[in-house]
Every structure is written in structure tokens, then in C-alpha cells.
Please model this.
Amino acid sequence: MPDFADTRVSLAGQGSLIGVALTASASGACVALVAGIQVTVRVPVGLTIAAQQSMLILRRGSTYWAISVLTAAPVIPPTVPPPADTPPASDPAPAPKPVTTTGTLVCPAVTTSTWRDGHWRTDLGSSTSADTYQGRYSGSGYGRMSGFAFYGSKPRSIAGATVTKATVKLRRLTSGDYGKRSPTLRLVSQSTRPGSFPTLNETASGPALGVQGHVSPSETSFTLPTSWGQAMVDGSRGGLCMTVSSDDPYMRLAGRSSWSAAWTLTLYWRRSS
Model:
């Protein structure tokens, strides 16, 4: 009958080996089972081995050295892909869309007046709601006239808004001939009537109007340059004027006393936030 020596396997020349400690390390050694063979394994200082731990063993000659304790393979959880409708975490959220507000601001004239010969005319009734004249009546010994409308602070109540359209209501009354004539419009710096002649700026040709009751049209809602309305809102301009550098065309447009809607300014605006 064969003895235990018949079952031994030579471990010479196998390089690194794996063994299971049968005893805990003590006094720099432990007993381990390597390929079915029970051997004594030297344990370096600083390495502690418990019974039943697997270890990596290096053989040098007839001496076995434990070089490390083997741990179980790490468990790596599977990567779960994000749902199809979930954007990548690195994608920033889109910026919110700007909110655009639109509106209409109606600005009645606070004053309508006519200037002639170095002062505001007072012979037309109230000098702050008088009809507005342009030019000079043929044969008149008086000087040329200029009519004004001032709008106070109301246009500036929407400061910061962008003006998209500006209109003014005009009505021509009897004076001069009946044919269609166009006032020359000017943008005025002042928003209230000054004691002296106002400061005139930009110019534009007004609508061709006939005299009320004789030639149509005599009344209109005339579209001003958009930049004029913007200047009113921004505060750099405050009024409108009808004036010419010659006597003609001589014409009269209604002031507040003749027509409550006279020279009413309407501003169409938008604002984004």
C-alpha cells in the first residue's frame, strides 16, 4: 500500500504559488496548504495572516515566503444607462425665453399755443389751449406764426420701452385757402411751454389736409417718424411744432379748445424682460 509520499507533487520551479493558511501567522511563520501539500511559510515583518486566508507565496530554494494576502475580486456594479429622454448631465438647461410686453400710451397735449411777434398769442382765447397757426395771412401786418403742442411728462412714464409707432391727431380749420396744404412739423426740446421761443429740432412734412367742411380730408391720425416717439419716451424731446420759414402755406390746425383730441400723441411700444 503506498504511503503519503506517493501523493506528493514537486513544487520546485513553479514561481509564485497560492496557498491557504491553516494557522495564523506567529513568530514570523504559519502553516499553509499549497497544491495539497502542507508546508511551513515564512511571513515577513509587517504582514499578518489569519487562518483560512489565501495568500500569494514565493518559493526561494526550499523556503516558502508569504508576500501578500489575497482578497476577493472587487464587485463592480453594472453601469445603468440614463433613460432615453434624460439629457446628459453636462448639458446646461436652456435659457428662459424673454417675455415681451406691448402696449399703447395715449398722450393728450397739455398745452396748445401759437407764437407770433415775440410772444404767445392771447387773442385766441386761452393761450394754453389755443388753435395752432403756421405762416402769415396774405397782407397781414403781423409776423409769421408757429403753432406748438407740449406733452408734459406722460411720454416718459414708459421710459426704457422701445417705440414701434407714433401717431398724432390733426384737424385743419378755416383760415387761408381751401386747397390741401401740408404743415411742416418740427420736434421740440421742451415738454412744457417756455416763456421764450422753444427750441426746434428735427423736421418732417406733415399730411396734406383740406379745410374742414370744404375739402376732404381735413382730419387725420398722422404717423410720425418712429424716432420722434422714441425721443419723447427717452426725454430728449417733449413737443411738436408746425412752422415755415416763409409766409406760405398759411394754415390753422385745431387746438385743445376747438377739438379735445387735437394734437393727441399715441405711442405704440414694446418691452422685453
